[in-house]
Design brief:
single chain; 544 residues; mainly alpha; two-stranded antiparallel sheet; 21 helices; 76% helix; 4% strand; elongated
Length: 544
């Protein structure tokens, strides 16, 4: 019997997780441009940051994805620490929508939704319709998986050994029992790596009567701690601010759970009063299941240990669990909003800035960011823009070397160092975007990803050319050779024109301005023509 239960529960959990993934990917594909717009408009306004974090998480259906994404954006300086902290707090509110989705009484329709959405997804030719179908396909899998888990847990209600094991950490009104439940929830989330999945398991156990509302509520509070591990792992190897952002997530959740568990009895009573006020029943109220047959209400029966009895349900526990999760995160955000400055200031003192003077190096891309293609593109775009800035600086450092033909080991070393960095960055961008584009992404995301790969390759090639010119200048100097004044004037003219061309391209890329394309082509043709003319002039001078 236990093997059958295990297979049904683990199968339901697998379908649930796959459903969350499909629902997330479908919604991201539909709302990709809106998500990127929200990221671009992020400001240091704490209320806007919280609101943005809430909305983004509602779309991607995972606070872990949002927080990992935020770590990546902080890593490439798209967000500062205060913005990131606000978005992370908002993500905690946004993730509570999962609980309310699971509360919907459409579990029995999960399989039909899944089936219809699958046909639409497979046979539709329009991308937008396919991604909408994917979102509904995921929704159907979520409900179908939850139903499987519920059915798997049902036989355990009459197993004394299993119930005795649960009694060991069930809430009994003491603070120690609350901590036990919260610890179990944290550990379970740490293992599954998804607070939504842990929430589904908790609702499955509660709705079948295995655990009561208070125990389920304490488990959910602990799940908020377990979910912080994902962001912490994503910050390893990242910048100082990326690590600070992950620590802010830990501080927010751990401190929040600490103070809410201290008043757990009072808080859970408030939630119970809310559920009673809204629905006329306490969260632990038991309802005997019925169904209509030919217009007549008849009891739903089941056989347990050879005895037929009416099915018992606890529908209000699910509402209580969702209310507990949402209420805690909203209250915790309200507590931390006025303390954001203090928390970020303390994190900056605890995790100090690195020693000044070091040249920036390759930023860290976490492969888990491919789960948010539209937002992952924003991160890779910022990295490409950092390559453009490096090329601008390299061109600026190259000019005096050509103009004065004097040795400057410090500047020359910086040019060589930047070229090495850009080699690594280009490889990292290629790897990151290759993973991202290998998934299910809309055509516009695919096109932009390919453009970014090409731009990264072009910037890396420019850095190679700059280093080649620098090596030639060093060789001329070592062999005590020099170029004529006419050649130097023409070289400097080409340098100025190429620099202006690069600045034009970089400005258009920063501002998403496609109007510069025509002007850029004209300038490029002029530079090519001048280069050929100056080369002919040089050959004539050499031949005379």
């Amino acid at each position: 019997m236990y093997l059958t239960i295990f297979f049904e529960v683990i199968g339901g959990l697998g379908i649930f997780l796959l459903g969350m993934k499909n629902m997330s990917e479908g919604m991201q594909a539909i709302a990709g441009p809106a998500l990127r717009s929200m990221i671009n408009r992020a400001t240091s306004n704490r209320f806007m940051a919280v609101g943005m974090g809430t909305l983004v998480t509602c779309f991607v259906q995972s606070s872990s994805i949002t927080t990992v994404m935020v770590i990546g954006l902080v890593n490439v300086n798209v967000m500062n620490l205060t913005q990131a902290f606000g978005v992370i707090m908002g993500a905690n509110i946004g993730t509570t929508i999962t609980g309310w989705i699971l509360v919907l009484k459409i579990g029995k329709y999960g399989l039909p939704i899944l089936g219809v959405a699958t046909f639409v997804y497979l046979f539709s030719k329009k991308d937008r319709i396919r991604y909408i179908a994917m979102a509904f396909l995921g929704l159907g899998m979520v409900f179908f998986g939850l139903e499987l888990m519920k059915n798997g847990f049902k036989p355990l209600r009459t197993e004394p050994e299993f119930l005795k094991w649960f009694t060991a950490f069930a809430y009994d009104g003491t603070y120690l029992s609350v901590l036990k439940c919260a610890t179990v929830g944290a550990v379970l989330t740490l293992i599954v790596q998804s607070s939504s999945a842990t929430l589904g398991i908790t609702i499955g156990l509660a709705s079948t009567g295995i655990i009561d509302f208070h125990t389920a509520a304490a488990l959910v509070l602990g799940e908020n701690i377990g979910t912080t591990v994902t962001a912490f792992l994503a910050s390893i190897g990242g910048s100082i601010n990326a690590r600070r952002a992950s620590y802010s997530h830990i501080v927010f959740n751990v401190v929040g759970v600490f103070w809410i568990t201290a008043i757990f009895g009072f808080y859970s009573s408030l939630v119970s009063d809310y559920v009673f006020w809204q629905h006329g029943h306490e969260p632990d109220a038991m309802i005997l299941a019925t169904e209509k047959i030919d217009g007549v209400e008849v009891p739903v029966m089941e056989t347990i240990n050879g005895v037929e009895q009416q099915v018992e349900t606890f529908p209000y526990r699910e509402i209580g669990i969702a209310a507990t999760h949402t209420g805690f995160n909203i209250i915790n955000v309200l507590v931390f909003l006025p303390l954001m400055g203090l928390v970020t200031g303390a994190l900056k003192r605890i995790v100090p800035d690195p020693t000044p003077g070091s040249v920036g190096h390759l930023q860290y891309f976490d492969v888990r960011l491919v789960d948010t293609p539209a937002l992952g593109l924003e991160q890779s775009k910022q990295q490409v823009l950092s390559m453009s800035e490096s090329v601008e600086k390299m061109m600026g450092k190259l000019r005096p070397i050509i103009e004065e033909n004097k040795e400057d080991e410090t500047e020359e070393r910086k040019i060589f160092h930047r070229e090495e960095i850009l080699d690594d960055v280009q490889k990292e961008i290629n790897e990151f975007l290759s993973h991202l584009l290998a998934g299910t992404v809309p055509q516009d995301v695919m096109d932009e990803g390919r453009n970014q790969i090409r731009m990264a390759d072009e910037y890396e090639s420019i850095s190679d050319y700059i280093v080649t010119i620098l090596k030639l200048a060093i060789k001329l100097r070592k062999e005590d050779l020099s170029i004529s004044d006419d050649n130097r004037v023409e070289l400097l003219d080409l340098h100025i024109r190429v620099t202006n061309y690069i600045l034009l391209i970089n400005g258009g890329m920063r501002n998403n301005n496609m109007d510069i394309v025509t002007k850029a082509r004209t300038l490029g043709d002029e530079i090519t023509f001048l280069m050929k003319e100056y080369r002919s002039n040089h050959l004539e001078r050499v031949g005379t």
